[in-house]
Amino acid sequence: MLAAISDTHGTDDHRLTGRTLDAVREADHVLHAGDFMTEPVLDAIDAECDELTGVVGNNDRSAVRDRLPDVATISWEGLTIVVAHGHEHTETALGMLARQENADIVVVGHSHNPTLTDFGGWTLVNPGSYADPRRYQPAHAELDVVAGDVRVRLRSPDGTPISTTTVER
């Protein structure tokens, strides 16, 4: 399984609880789409993961910015996944990024709004914010292989499914 989280907005710890914490611990790989905010938060999340790929968000302090890229691309289960915070990306720019990286999935944060959108050729995954949802539902994303394809599921921290989509491999 791959887990995607974003917008922790913490100062001291990872703020992970419930199913979100379980998903981060169980995942083979965790993606964080920015706004850890501080280096202790980055370190706390990293300590819970087997493997972490994170990117810089617009609220990350310099110690986090020094350690992470603005955009990261990984290969997972035969798919190419691009991660960016999203604060500098319009829908058009995200589409260009997806094409540039030949991405199947683009993971972004910033808005705190958990969203799955199919753009016909690539899928946008915004895991929302599990710790600071603002006016939206708290959430994270889980990706796993089902019948040969990748199921992307948004879940609340208590584990309740919010929405699901399938990405063909």
From TrEMBL:
Indicate the enzyme's highest-level EC class. hydrolase
Calcineurin-like phosphoesterase domain location: 2-139
Q: Name one GO molecular function term.
A: metal ion binding
Q: What is its EC number?
A: 3.1.4.-
The protein's superkingdom reads Archaea
The signal peptide annotation in the UniProt record is none
The record, for InterPro entries, names: Calcineurin-like_PHP_lpxH (IPR024654), Metallo-depent_PP-like (IPR029052), MPP_YfcE (IPR041802), Phosphodiesterase_MJ0936/Vps29 (IPR000979)
Q: Name one Pfam family in it.
A: Metallophos_2
Q: Does the keyword DNA repair apply?
A: no
Cofactor(s) of this protein: a divalent metal cation
Q: Which SUPFAM superfamilies match?
A: Metallo-dependent phosphatases
The family annotation for this protein states: Belongs to the metallophosphoesterase superfamily. YfcE family.
The record, for PANTHER family, names: VACUOLAR SORTING PROTEIN VPS29
UniProt-recorded name of the protein: Phosphoesterase
